[in-house]
């Protein structure tokens, strides 16, 4: 179980936490560090954020929270998610998310903050947070779908397909799973062929004109997760999930 990094002009950062890439608290911090380190390397011209296994990311490891006494695991996971999402957003070079299978919760946070998304034809995106007694990553989902669809997805926990996002223009390409990593590297290579100084300034300038501060917005959402945990609703929902209910 690890965050793997494959260095090069196009650096790959790969999520690998079997069986479903439910990322533990330490894993989110490791992911943040890997993306930050890749972007700080002057030889890196683009980053592909990918995953091994059944799906891109199932979000946080809820079972870790429930088997850990107190609030430490919850707090660590929330801080880790914030750090990882921010690392993708702040990475000085473009980040291309290569999404296969399910992209849930924290996975949407990563994909929504990426510069580009390439997805496999079996990819789905969703926020099951309401069913888990938590809130968060609507900030990032709003970068992928229209506003009222985002609200519908939050309230109902319904997922959408990569093909639907492709119609919105927020997924660049939908490809067979076997060709996903190759497609992401192809787009990253096109970017990497540009003048690296200009590309880094382009990334900085595009972040500077964003209408929403994604880091502040996400932390605002997280405050409601803390409230739900304090009043007991969060713990009840997480335990239902662990119990299979």
TrEMBL record:
Entry similarity comment: Belongs to the enoyl-CoA hydratase/isomerase family.
Classification via PANTHER family: (7AS)-7A-METHYL-1,5-DIOXO-2,3,5,6,7,7A-HEXAHYDRO-1H-INDENE-CARBOXYL-COA HYDROLASE, ENOYL-COA HYDRATASE-RELATED
Top-level taxon in the UniProt lineage: Bacteria
Keywords tagged on the record: Lipid metabolism, Lyase
This protein's name: Enoyl-CoA hydratase family protein
Organism: Actinoplanes sandaracinus
SUPFAM superfamilies in UniProt: ClpP/crotonase
